[in-house]
Amino acid sequence: MTTANATTPESRTFEADVAKLLHLMVHSVYSDRDVFLRELISNAADACERLRYEAISSPALLSEGPKSRITLLIDAAHRRLMVDDNGIGMTQAEMVEALGTIARSHDRAPKRSWNALRRHKLERAPS
């Protein structure tokens, strides 16, 4: 596998619920460096697993060998920690879809909770 090519950054306007969710993720969950690093390593493991799965039908994908690899690279001079893997990551379309799916499920969760609470109260109400 090759590393991702350097590309120019792309801006994308998300719906308000996606923007809120991303803000929460960046400023709460990912503010803890340990959690953020575990998430990056978990994503690398997912990419390696995707490579293993895709290689079942396309063995040529394993040209570098069948071993999964996750490497942490430290660049102390620039204060960077890089996570590198030999897996298959998400495509741009998959990323956009995943963010939309997360936001939609996040948006519906309070409604589902409210409806479940209302049903529970109705079931317990005296007749």
Explain this structure to me?
The protein is mostly helical. The chain has a single domain, classed as Heat Shock Protein 90 (2-Layer Sandwich). Helix content is 55%, strand content 9%. It has three helices and two strands; from the N terminus they run H-H-E-E-H. Helix 1 crosses helix 3. The radius of gyration is 20 Å and the shape is globular. 5% of the residues are buried.
Secondary-structure map:
Layout: H1 16-27, H2 33-57, E1 70-75, E2 80-85, H3 92-124
Antiparallel strand pairs: 1-2
Helix pairs in contact: 1-3
Q: What's the CATH first level?
A: Alpha Beta
Structural class: mainly alpha
Strand content is 5-15%
CATH topology: Heat Shock Protein 90
**pLDDT below 50 for ≥5 consecutive residues: which ranges?**
none
* Portion in helices: 55-70%
Work out the count of structural domains: 1
How large, in whole angstroms, is the Cα Rg?
Answer: 20 Å
**Any idea what the CATH superfamily is called?**
Histidine kinase-like ATPase, C-terminal domain
Under the CATH scheme, the architecture is 2-Layer Sandwich
Mean pLDDT: 76
Strand order of the largest sheet: 1-2
Give me the strand/helix succession. Answer: HHEEH
User: What gap, in angstroms, lies between the N and C termini?
Assistant: 66 Å
